[in-house]
Amino acid sequence: MVPGEPASGITMQIRGIIFDAYGTLFDVHSVASLAEEIFPSKGVALSNLWRDKQIEYTRLRTLSSRYVDFLRVTEDALRNACARLRLPLAERDLERLLAQYHRLDAFPDAVATLQRLRSQGFALAILSNGTPGMLESVVDSAGMSGLFDHLLSADEVHKFKTAPEVYQMGVAAFGCSAAELVFVSANGWDACCATWFGYQTFWINRASDPVEQLGVAPTRQGRQLNDLTDFVDRRTGS
Amino acid sequence: MVPGEPASGITMQIRGIIFDAYGTLFDVHSVASLAEEIFPSKGVALSNLWRDKQIEYTRLRTLSSRYVDFLRVTEDALRNACARLRLPLAERDLERLLAQYHRLDAFPDAVATLQRLRSQGFALAILSNGTPGMLESVVDSAGMSGLFDHLLSADEVHKFKTAPEVYQMGVAAFGCSAAELVFVSANGWDACCATWFGYQTFWINRASDPVEQLGVAPTRQGRQLNDLTDFVDRRTGS
User: Fold this and answer.
1) ipTM, two decimals
2) What is the pTM of this model?
3) Please, which residues have CB within 8 angstroms of residue A57's CB and are 6 or more apart in sequence?
């Protein structure tokens, strides 16, 4: 199927489905077991702070127009998280932890959900802060090769989410309006800001968190990736 | 003294000193005791999450060009923090907690430090995400009226830190280059991004945290506001 072309046999209101990568398809906290091995009893704390700092640095660098790529941001965030937790980080362990980002675990229902959507004729994409190299390797590692029509990296515009230029990449790739696309994220802030941008949005709310208080809400939410299939079935009338 | 004019008798390399407000001069966690009264055993957790969400929302709204003022952001952050912690927030308690932001405690050495700098002839300013009304009331409440030449609010540019447009307000107010001004913040990210902008910066690092890993460092750091006086003494050669 050509991306953007209606699938035959269904009333097509959705021209494509765009997934966030980290936290949505891939479990960023799957680094915690290696972190725990290196720093006993501190694995979860390190994993959480590493992720928080990673997100924070993407935002600060975008606000201040000081882009470096997501691999560098991820390394910087790891160094700071370790320093903040007073964990001495050997270079070799830094390399081992960073290498995990190239082979994060996919969430258990990710591959099956993507395959089902694909078999229904939906064009699929990833739109992520990750570098092209990071995205290719994590997709390959998870057995998702060939499932996506587009792997879209914020590296192309040298800004990170939630800059509109990043969300615009999905529109450009599919050649249709944001309202004809579904953007899927497990990061509540990403789902909200993508809604502001104009996408139909689906928030994978695994922890039953409240919606971010930003004066905007995702179009719909579910508890797992598989819940997305009901949403797009209803939208397409299939 | 006219802002920007050299003080007599010293070799003036600093044309003014600009302070961040929240977390730097005023203790945002002085809300914790009221929070504890309303939600026993949860006061500190609420205070911390409220602050984190407040900062997060300023960044998301600036990145996504969806400005609302800091009073609204502060209310939104409080509502979300309570929801996330599963704390039922009555409207009356919301109003009581928000009212605290107009009379936050100043850090113990804040007034004396400001008075000393002022007596040395330095022009002083606040540059903050807070609205003009929030800044005026918290300054008055802390007994700092008359100590500042400028109260500069991000509300004027409808962006929050760390957007360069916000830091630029200090330059515009003093009518000199950023390099001739000292920007003081206890928020490490604020001190780093102000350094990127071009200010001489002083980070009040009360918790002895590591510098944010952003490829830039504050010009200097200290443990308390009073440490700033050594820094500016050395710079001016007095």
Assistant:
1) 0.93
2) 0.93
3) A73, A76, A77, B212, B213, B214
